[in-house]
Amino acid sequence: MRNQFLFLAAASLVSAQGFSADWDAAYTKAKTALGKLSQNEKLGLVSGVGWGKGACAGNTAAANSIGYGGLCLQDGPLGVRDRTGITAFPPGIQAASTWDRDLIRQRGKGIGAQTKALGIHVILGPVAGPLGQFPEGGRNWEGFGNDPYLCGVSMEQTVGGIQEAGAQACAKHYIGNEQEKNRDTMNAVIDDRTFHELYLWPFAEAVRANVASIMCSYNKISGKWACENQQMLDAILKKELGFRGYVVTDWDAQHTTVDSANAGLDMTMPGSNYGGMNVLWNNGQLSNAVNNRQVPQARLDDMVTRILAAWYLTKQDSGYPRVVTGGSNVQTTADKNLAKAVARDGIVLLKNEDILPLVKPRSIAIIGSHAVSNPRGINSCGDMGCNTGALSMGWGSGTATLPYLSAPADAISSRARQEGSTVTTTASDNSYQGASAAQNADVAIVFITADSGEEYITVENNKGDRNDLNAWHAGNELVKAVANVNRNTIVVVHSVGPILLESFADLPNVKAIVWAGLPGQESGNALVEVLYGDVSPSGKLPYTIAKRASDYGTSIQATTDNFSEGLYIDYRYLDKNNIAPRYEFGFGLSYTTFNYTALSITSTATSGPATGATVPGGASSLFDTVATITATITNSGPVPGAEVAQLYLGLPSSAPATPVRQLRGFEKQMLQVGESASVTFELRRKDLSYWDVGGKRWVLPAGSFRVEVGGSSRDLRLSGMMTVA
Ligand code: NOJ
Fold it and tell me: Where does the Fibronectin type III-like domain lie (predicted)?
């Protein structure tokens, strides 16, 4: 892996682990093609053909003069939506929980390959907004957790994987769309530093990875709609970050013809009076605006050039499959295995008191309605708009049709029988029934959930965002009732995000808590491999599980979101305020143990602002490696296992007030029993810098940085200082 990185870094056109791309060559082709297009063809390229007209959620017209078949844009971030025979991969949040760069990339590649096989050009993902300002945010699970660094790496790898497979990725939703409530009218007011250091960061990494397209969001930013916000689209995305692809609206997020065109919007979707806005581009409006010089012809040409450049960049101009409608089967065995690996390696073991892995218990009671498939059918709720049966993903446009679901109860039962255990399943959340099933079993495994999704569906009174952070369906009561009668209670949680565990986490009879997240189609198969110790759990939390909702310091807003907590979301807030979490960001147990030794820090960093020409992602020097930190981890326990070594950085006092520590590196390392390995964290100039509001630039501060390396944000085994002059 190292050698490959060095080799790639040497080739200047390649972003470290994103998509290897030559924008200049793509632009040359795009400009040649532009010269052959009629004005009508140009107009057809930049606007959807209308809602429901075409094979995909969004479709653009063909331009026959250049052999351009038009684009088919389809959701979504975990696999191809509304198609059969695809893979319903685990959502982004589960991929992030693996903290495994390679696996995250493979997942992207799997999604991209199926997208291409179906002839779809643009897959509407991955998601970096919402980032996760609010733990209740309905769509957080579509993305990669609320730490910008973890999310940024996940964006880079996912974009890289999708585009390497031949599809165009679309990083969404840009930006400030942190909640579902009032998302169409919300005004996000984000101070410039918080904007750069938290919310823009993962989008910048997507640009760095050469993402083809970016979707602007429904909300306003500082009073201006995201899709006609000149500051956001032109000044920041295109100029500051050097984004050379195209900006496409979220569906019906366009409010004006002229202003949006002039602000830097490049494509409008879906191109019909969908939802009541009569401000389109494709019914003569944009054409008129260009004719009477409200929108410069050069701006239209730029839109077209960007769209064509992305198409050439991903080599969709030759041999791309035709759009497949109707039934299909593009899922391979490798896809299923990959989906299982992501589901499994994203499982986070939160508590384990000598009970896991299971060793041939005589009898097992499986308890809870969420242990079994939805009795009405695994796809019976449109866009997964219900929380009935085993939870594999949230709800909304970011879902896919399950080709099958490995239900936890089925997978556990079949394994348990092989091991000679008797099994009873009680698919009820009723405490009385749960307790009576549990009381005579050696081991009781209880399933609880929390769900959320997109605002166009309300599930059990939750209109997208969650109403609170409690387990649904009286899950806490069920766990307590079971633990009351069974000394070996194991709680399995399937959830879109953190839930409060205080009512049972310390109960002595709750011997284990297994955070199984959102596993996609391979739910049960993945879980069994962890429960039975085929693999040691290796996932780590991509968010904090706090003791109380108020410990997060943020809550869903009404009409304006002022982002008043600034940089202090999730662990940054708890650290600042000395609040003890239940389970901290980055936490996760294993069946083995790891030692950390031999921290070494070398740096060539010099203080001062980032410099250099703008490359995709920002000023070129931001991406220079300026420090290398290594540590040795040893598997000191009884079984093989993988550890996620995490690096946190504290900035020197010469920087403006900054969180106590921020994630700036991680490396997942598999280790056999007794084996040691050195993990290396390469820090880029950007990773050591803060956003200087006055100078509008990244600045690397002088002084002493605190370097901490460990197994979570609070299990920091090694620390040292790094001084920069
Ligand atoms: C609206 C959602 O916000 C977006 O994520 C999705 O891609 C479009 N609808 C198209 O379904």
Answer: 643-713
Residues 91 and 163: their CA atoms lie apart, in Å, by 18
Asked if residue 523 lies in contact with residue 408, where contact means CB atoms within 8 angstroms, the answer is: yes
| pLDDT score, position 282 | 81
Ligand 1 mean position to 397 CA, how many Å?
Answer: 6
Secondary structure letter of residue 426 according to DSSP: E
More confidently predicted of 153 and 276:
153
Supply the pLDDT for residue 11: 34
For ligand 1, mutation pick of 250, 269, 272, 457 (most atoms within 8 Å of CB):
250
DSSP 329: -
The 3 state secondary structure assigned to 527-580 is: HHHHHCCCCCCCCCCCCCECCCHHHHCCCCCCCEECCCCCCCCCHHHHHHCCCC
Place of tokens 């509304």: 82
Domain with CATH 2.60.40.10 in the chain: 592-724
User: Is residue 172 within 6 Å of ligand 1 at its C-beta?
Assistant: yes
Residue 583 has pLDDT above 90, yes or no: yes
CA dihedral 574, 577, 579, 585 (to 10 degrees): 20
At the topology level, CATH places domain 333-561 in Rossmann fold (3.40.50)
**Ligand 1 centroid, distance to 203 Cα (angstroms):** 17
Higher pLDDT, 50 or 372: 372
Per-residue pLDDT for 707 more than 70? yes
Ligand 1 centroid from CA 250, angstroms: 6
Q: Which of 139, 164, 155 is nearest to 201 (CA)?
A: 155
Give yes or no for a cis peptide into 656 (omega within 30° of 0): no
- Catalytic residue selected from 100, 147, 250, 465: 250
- What is the domain class of 592-724 according to CATH? mainly beta
Q: Is the CB of 124 under 6 A from ligand 1?
A: yes
Q: In the chain, which segments carry CATH 3.40.50.1700?
A: 333-561
Which pLDDT score, from 0 to 100, does residue 281 have?
Answer: 86
Task: Give this prediction's pTM.
Answer: 0.97
User: Per-residue pLDDT for 277 more than 80?
Assistant: no
Ligand 1: residue whose CA is nearest its atom 4: 250
| Catalytic residue flag (residue 82) | no
For 233-258, write each residue's pLDDT tens digit.
999 999 999 999 999 999 999 999 99
- For residues 281 and 182, which has the higher predicted lDDT (pLDDT)? 182
Report the SS3 class of residue 339. helix
Which residue's CA is the closest to the ligand 1 atom numbered 3? Answer: 250
Question: DSSP 3-state assignment of 28?
Answer: helix
Task: Identify the sign of the CA torsion 523, 529, 532, 533.
Answer: negative
3 state SS of 81: coil
CATH 3.20.20.300 range(s) for the chain read: 23-313
Q: What is the mean pLDDT of residues 540-569?
A: 98
Residue-level pLDDT at 328:
86
Check whether 641 has a pLDDT greater than 50: yes
Mean pLDDT, the chain, whole residue set: 96
How many Å apart are CA 248 and CA 265, to the nearest integer? 7
Distance CA 638, CA 533 (A): 12
Distance CA 210, CA 241 (A): 11
* Cα separation, 441 vs 463, whole angstroms: 39
| β-pair partners for 668 | 644
pLDDT band at 276 (very low <50, low <70, confident <90, very high): low
Helix axes 408-418, 523-531, angle to 10 degrees: 40
- Quick one: average pLDDT of 196-218? 98
Q: Which CATH number fits domain 23-313: 3.40.50.1820, 3.40.50.2000, 3.40.50.450, 3.20.20.300?
A: 3.20.20.300
Report the nearest-CA residue for atom 11 of ligand 1.
Answer: 397
